[in-house]
């Protein structure tokens, strides 16, 4: 089978397509013939060794969510049958024609009549993260104003749709280009702001009549995070989940004072930590998010699908910051 590996950090060209033996499932695992593979920005950060979440141990066969058909089951597997369609996380070797998925890491797929394999595979990471940012962490209430950074990105484009469905009073979308802002508008954003331009914070305050926003979702980090704090209204919540800028900044003392005196809070979010420490919240969120998708209120936006042999091109597109929605691989 074809499999993507890399032996050192660097540009996307370090990703190598290799021939490998088809793996055999062990106890609690199933072997999946892969049809679609999720690709996220964190994959490029890990490859570059600039991820704030740590560095990989080489050699690396990237792990991610895959969607496909079960072709073999391991010992002690009774609830999944050969021929069954499955969506699940392959911790190692997801960028491949076949992948091993532990049963504990599977996600109940929706009927294919409603979503394509490419759309399906994007739901667990980007979609569920967006849900938990708004519902679990921010606890968004109807009528509240929400500011979503990178609103056309993998997580952001889900967050815009969810915020609209949850009854947000005003959705302010930021992005780095007019094209991305247009995408955010089609998804339901009310106010569009380019956060790479000078004075973007003033535009936010003007759009809210000087009141600020109740919720901010930030996956960018860096200086954007620091500049966002003054935009919170009293009892506002800034939820941090990622650092696409490659940097999580230390907050200056004046920012800490703003939090205290302004009755504001900043909170971190990690899907991995939530899964490890609060599986009950993961299960509840999965059901709620699934209902939104089934009802047609939320739908993935796939910008482009790449063949497995084009994996370096897919990573280049993500790193160019020209992409929107989701990027998917197909073996």
TrEMBL record:
Gene3D superfamilies: Medium-chain alcohol dehydrogenases, catalytic domain, NAD(P)-binding Rossmann-like Domain. SUPFAM superfamilies: GroES-like, NAD(P)-binding Rossmann-fold domains. GO terms for cellular component: cytosol. Signal peptide: none annotated. CDD domains: QOR1. One of its GO terms (molecular function) is quinone reductase (NADPH) activity. It holds the Pfam family ADH_zinc_N. This is Alcohol dehydrogenase zinc-binding domain protein. Keywords: NADP, Oxidoreductase. It comes from Ktedonobacter racemifer DSM 44963.
């Amino acid at each position: 089978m074809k499999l993507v590996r890399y032996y050192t950090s660097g540009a996307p060209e370090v990703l190598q397509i290799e021939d490998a033996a088809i793996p055999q499932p062990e106890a609690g695992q199933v072997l999946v013939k892969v049809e679609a593979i999720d690709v996220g920005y964190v994959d490029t950060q890990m490859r570059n060794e600039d991820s704030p979440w740590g560095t990989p141990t080489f050699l690396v066969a990237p792990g991610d969510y895959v969607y496909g058909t079960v072709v073999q089951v391991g010992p002690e597997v009774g609830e999944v049958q050969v021929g069954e369609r499955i969506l699940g996380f392959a911790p190692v070797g997801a960028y491949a024609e076949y992948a091993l998925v532990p049963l504990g890491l599977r996600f109940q797929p929706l009927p294919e009549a409603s979503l394509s394999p490419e759309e399906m595979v994007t739901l667990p990471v980007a979609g569920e993260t967006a849900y938990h940012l708004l519902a679990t962490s921010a606890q968004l209430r109807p009528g509240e104003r929400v500011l979503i950074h990178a609103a056309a990105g993998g997580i952001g484009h889900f967050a815009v749709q969810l915020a609209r469905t949850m009854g947000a009073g005003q959705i302010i979308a930021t992005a780095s280009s007019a094209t991305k802002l247009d995408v955010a508008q089609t998804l339901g954003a009310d106010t569009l702001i380019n956060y790479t331009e000078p004075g973007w914070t003033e535009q936010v305050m003007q759009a809210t009549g000087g009141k600020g926003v109740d919720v901010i979702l930030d996956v960018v980090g860096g200086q954007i995070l620091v500049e966002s704090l003054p935009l919170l209204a009293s009892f506002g919540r800034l939820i941090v989940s990622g650092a696409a800028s490659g940097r999580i900044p230390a907050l200056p003392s004046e920012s800490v004072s703003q939090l205290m005196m302004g009755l504001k809070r900043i909170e971190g979010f990690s899907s991995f930590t939530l899964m490890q420490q609060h599986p009950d919240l993961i299960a509840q969120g999965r059901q709620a998010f699934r209902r939104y998708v089934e009802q047609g209120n939320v739908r993935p936006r796939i910008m482009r699908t790449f063949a497995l042999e084009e994996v370096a091109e897919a990573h280049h597109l993500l790193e160019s910051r020209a992409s929107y929605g989701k990027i998917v691989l197909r073996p």
